[in-house]
Amino acid sequence: MDNVKTEMFCLSVLFMVLLLLCDSDAAQAKQGMSLSSQKFEIQKHLNRLNKPAVKSIKSPDGDIIDCVHISHQPAFDHPLLKNHTVQMMPNYHPEGLFRDGKMSTAAKNKNYGSKSINQLWHLNGKCPEGTIPIRRTKKDDILRASNMKSYGRKTNFSTISKPESGRPGGVGNQNGHQHAIAYVEGDEYYGAKATINVWQPKIQQPNEFSLSQIWLLAGSFDSDLNSIEAGWQVSPDLYGDNNARLFTYWTSDAYQATGCYNLLCSGFIQINNEIAMGATISPLSSYHGSQYDISILVWKDPKEGNWWMQFGNDYVLGYWPGFLFSYLTDSASMIEWGGEVVNSESDGLHTTTQMGSGHFPDEGFGKSSYFRNIQVVDESNNLRAPQDLGTYTEDNNCYDVQLGKNNDWGNYFYYGGPGRNANCP
Question: I need a surface site. Which of 27, 218, 312, 323 has the fewest CB within 10 A?
Answer without folding.
Answer: 27
